[in-house]
Write a structure and sequence with these properties.
Layout (H helix, E strand, L loop, with lengths): L6 E5 L2 H4 L27 H5 L3 H9 L14 H15 L3 E5 L2 H4 L10 H16 L3 E7 L5 H7 L6 H17 L5 E5 L9 H5 L8 H26 L4 E7 L3 E3 L4 H23 L4 H9 L10 H7 L4 E5 L4 E3 L7 E3 L4 E3 L15 H15 L3 E5 L17 H19 L4 E7 L19 E3 L11 E3 L1 H11 L7
Parallel strand pairs: 1-2, 1-12, 2-3, 3-4, 4-5, 5-7, 6-8, 7-11, 11-12
Antiparallel strand pairs: 9-10, 13-14
Helix pairs in contact: 4-6, 8-10, 10-13, 14-15
Family: Belongs to the glycosyl hydrolase 1 family.
GO molecular function, one term: beta-glucosidase activity
Keywords: Glycosidase, Hydrolase
């Protein structure tokens, strides 16, 4: 059973929805130089996320949107009132969104924010409140100023911490009366796997592994300072961390497979460990030392991390993988990873393995480890939707996916897990992260736009819309 007051809703990111990338003074972000990659093999992780300094410079010289779909998004910037009305019709009690840093500070280094950007987000959050939708806001969701990436190599440089803290302070001061639930960094662990989109670290500028771990440490420090500011400036404000939950099983009971899985799990969880417990795990410090990776601690960092830990743990969950030491084991893609394919699970059209039981396992593991409230802030399935002759997408496959996951969530709650809420990714079709496609659709609401930006942008509820509306109205008790 889902508890009274459980928050039901959906999750969006500014860089995948807003569009209006150069409107009202907004500056370019790292997402705005990420190209459309429809023909890249989804198991070719390097090709999906590789970018060079010259790629960035070339993208900035191109002011178009054809090659860079995140620049247009789904025009949420101009259509948010209508979209929020649809979310209210669904019965949402919460909506996760992010703030585009460059809409407030175009280069990230300005002393004062753009008032046009402040006005947009104040209007957005006010409209959410009018519909009785609780905002949960991510400060940094794969959209840092590209100017900071080019000038400092992103978060690899300690000076970026001060720029982020100034930005966070403005958000708390200007929006704190409307927003009580905050997240610092989306999927903070991802900076090791895709350093540019997550932290503006450019792979061709020095040792990318060392730079990525330096950047992660700087994000830890910035997150702790932002948590302190949230508690000081936002009445009843609560700060959460956000982890990519990459639950991994051993492919076999061969001890070497189990040991490899254990190491993968420790590496996945350690960023949340730092933000919850306020210190690096000793096993991770030893691993980094063995790999000749330096953590750039400065005086006071240890105290900052220890004194300003998060209030709750949020996470994304899409799939599970397995691990094996067998070099010939078949591989399958997932959410920003490639892992060993599990022979017992079906796969989505993008090769992600569907594992509802893994969500229950993940919830129990996370709550047992951290003993803080949890929030599942991303979960969903990307599919190629077909509009029927009646103009409606009949997406029983999406309903089946969510039903199975909600059943497992309920079992975890019954087992004693403290789960605050659930936000699907994404409640409306948006531009996807890795390949910048529209054809990879997640929403309960269809958006009339193809991969090349053609279409009316009309919003149309799918069959899953009515089903999710019923689920929310019954607080998860009616999944039929």
């Amino acid at each position: 059973m889902f508890p009274e007051g459980f928050l039901w809703g959906g999750a969006l990111a500014a860089n995948q929805t807003e569009g209006a990338w150069n409107v009202d003074g907004r500056g370019p972000s790292v997402a705005d130089v990420t190209a459309y990659k429809p023909k890249v093999d989804v198991t070719d992780y390097e090709a999906l996320h590789q970018i060079t300094t010259s790629d960035i410079e070339a993208a900035l010289s191109d002011q178009g949107v054809d090659t860079f779909p995140k620049r247009r998004g789904i025009d949420f910037y101009h259509r948010y009132t209508d979209d929020l009305a649809l979310f209210a019709e669904l019965g949402f009690t919460t909506l996760r969104v992010s703030i585009s840093w460059t809409r407030l500070f175009p280069t990230g280094e300005e002393d004062v924010p753009l008032e046009a950007g402040i006005a947009f987000y104040e209007s957005l959050f006010t409209e959410m409140r009018r519909h009785h939708i609780e905002p949960i806001v991510t400060l940094h969701h794969y959209e840092m100023p590209v100017a900071l990436s080019l000038k400092y190599n992103g978060w690899a440089d300690r000076r970026v911490v001060d720029h982020f803290v100034r930005y966070a302070r403005v958000c708390f001061e200007r929006f704190g009366h409307l927003v009580k639930l905050w997240l610092t960094f989306n999927e903070i662990d991802g900076i090791i796997r895709h350093p540019f989109s997550s932290g503006g670290v450019i792979p061709d500028r020095g040792d990318v592994v060392q730079n990525s771990y330096s950047a992660l440490h700087h994000q830890f420090v910035a997150s702790a300072i932002a948590t302190r500011l949230c508690h000081e400036l936002v009445e009843e404000g609560r700060m959460g961390c956000m982890l990519t939950k990459l639950t991994t099983y051993p492919l076999t009971c061969r001890p070497e497979d189990v040991a490899a899985t254990q190491q993968k799990t420790l590496l996945n969880l350690f960023p949340a460990d730092v933000q919850v417990f306020g210190e690096y795990p000793p096993l991770i410090l030893r691993r980094l030392e063995r790999d000749d990776i330096t953590v750039p601690f400065e005086p006071g960092d240890a105290a900052i991390l220890k004194e300003h830990t998060v209030d709750f743990v949020s996470f994304s969950y899409y799939m599970t993988t397995t691990e094996s030491v067998d070099p010939d084991a078949e591989r399958a893609p997932g959410n920003t990873i490639v892992g060993v394919k599990n022979p017992y699970l079906p796969s989505s059209e993008w090769g992600w393995q569907v594992d509802p039981v893994g969500l229950r396992i993940s919830l129990i593991d996370l709550y047992d480890r951290y003993r803080k409230p949890l929030f599942c802030v991303e979960n969903g399935i990307g599919s190629i939707d077909v509009v029927g002759d009646d103009g409606i997408v009949h997406d029983d496959y999406r309903i089946d996916y969510f039903r199975a996951h909600f059943e497992e969530m309920s079992k975890a709650i019954d087992a004693g897990v403290d789960l605050m809420g659930y936000t699907s990714w994404a409640p409306i079709d948006i531009v996807s992260l890795s390949t910048s496609q529209m054809s990879k659709r997640y929403g309960f609401i269809y958006v009339d736009q193809d991969d090349h930006g053609n279409g009316t942008l009309e919003r149309r509820p799918k069959d899953s819309f009515a089903w999710y509306k019923k689920v929310i109205a019954s607080n998860g008790s009616d999944l039929t």
